Amino acid sequence: MGLELRTNLKLTQQLVLTPQLQQAIKLLQLSRLELIETINQELMENPFLEEGFDDPNAGTEDLISEQRKTENNEEAYSKEIAQNADWEDYLGDFASTTRQHNMKEVDLEEGLSAEARYISKTSLSGHLMWQLHLSRFTPKEVEIGELIIGNLDNKGYLQSSTEDMAEVLKTDPNQVEQVLARIQLFDPIGVGARTPQECLLIQLKVLNYDRDPILVSLIQDHLDDLESKRYKPLLRKFKIEMEDLKEYLDIIQSLDPLPGANYDDSEPMFVSPDAYVYQYDDDFIIILNDEGLPKLQLSSLYDESMSLNSETEKEYFKTKISSATWLIRSVYQRQKTLYKVLESLIKKQRDFFISGVSGLRPLILKDVADDINMHESTVSRITTNKYVATPHGTFELKFFFNSALSLDDGSEVGSESVKALIKKLIADENPKEPLSDEKIGEYLKDVLKVNIARRTVAKYRTALKIPSSSKRKELL
Length: 476
Known about the structure:
GO terms for molecular function: DNA binding; DNA-binding transcription activator activity; nucleotidyltransferase activity; sigma factor activity. The structure is a single chain. By secondary structure, the protein is of the alpha+beta class. It has helices at 19-29, 32-45, 60-71, 74-83, 87-94, 114-117, 124-134, 139-150, 162-169, 173-183, 196-206, 213-221, 223-227, 232-238, 242-253, 301-304, 311-348, 350-355, 365-372, 376-382, 415-427, 437-446, 454-463, 469-472, and strands spanning 49-51, 275-280, 283-288, 296-298, 387-390, 393-396, 404-406, 412-414. The strands form 3 sheets. A 4-stranded mixed β-sheet has the order 3-2-5-6, with helices on one face. The protein is extended and about 95 Å long. It starts with 18 loop residues before the first helix and ends with a helix.
């Protein structure tokens, strides 16, 4: 059979995401800080996009009136946004403005200086280097000490052997051991240890407790037994009473097995909420956080470009104008979608905004998507990396979506509410008789009428990072 080339016509349909649509989808899932960075980048690259400034003569009533006027005509509305996108116009409407005329002005964030918000934090390596260079070491010992400090993890433990470090520096391993022994006496004491036993024994030595052989043996050979609360074999082996063992445990518990933890190099994450929700009488007010968000509008170059004759220049200007217009509309659409989702969350999770986590109801993406007539994927994107400040704290929007547990009366309760109840039960328990997972499950069934299995209680307790009842039990 011979091969031949043929030309055929075929009609097909396929979904194509235009660059503008891709941009709008991308903006939905950006966090607030990422959105500001993206806008600032576009401001630098697009000559037809510029940052507008507030008009001090423009009142709130004028802004609301202009917004309502443009909503009546979609074409005029789009043109208005493209040519003069005054953010006070539409963000004011998203900020529940009409419900705030009789309300005291809300201070969104206290005006703290940057110095009050951020302070430099001493790292473990920096703290040890400072002590190293202020101690009496030879230049060679300083070099060894710097290598040792460089091989410590964030908990203060040495992650390399003395032989390997000696080979790197072409020196004697005994010299490395001598320098290491001196560094282990630096502040915090025990840093540079290779095992928890070594770390605790170093601290015992500094406190002059190492003269007690029973205490040394408990740390050196029986830490696992102490952790598992296997006390009876230890009492028989050392021929001591329970009161004596308790004194030894008090000493051991006063030691620090993680000497470098207080100098963790990781920085705390500061969350800037995308919106604020305040309670005003029996209603809740939503205020979108537009602090630092540039107010976009088309540049005056837009009118000048109309008189160009060069086709190349016209094409370039047309592309940039289209990009600027789409960015303005996409940012507007993002804020509008965020506001609608928050309104729906307040409506469906009203008990949470009134009473806190215990009032959180079961909720899935489809519930909100159906309420605001949008697709679930849109709700998923707009709730990603977004935070809202509520009367009960700052939460990620995805926090409000949780699975359901059945009640005896046929109704449902949210899993986050059950987690909060479990956490409260454990916090109020008798430390000497902690509640087991089975007892917690029985309590939830008998008192709160929540149908929950023991393994589900264990799963929720583990998610809350709460140890089991055996590990919570205090020594009598």
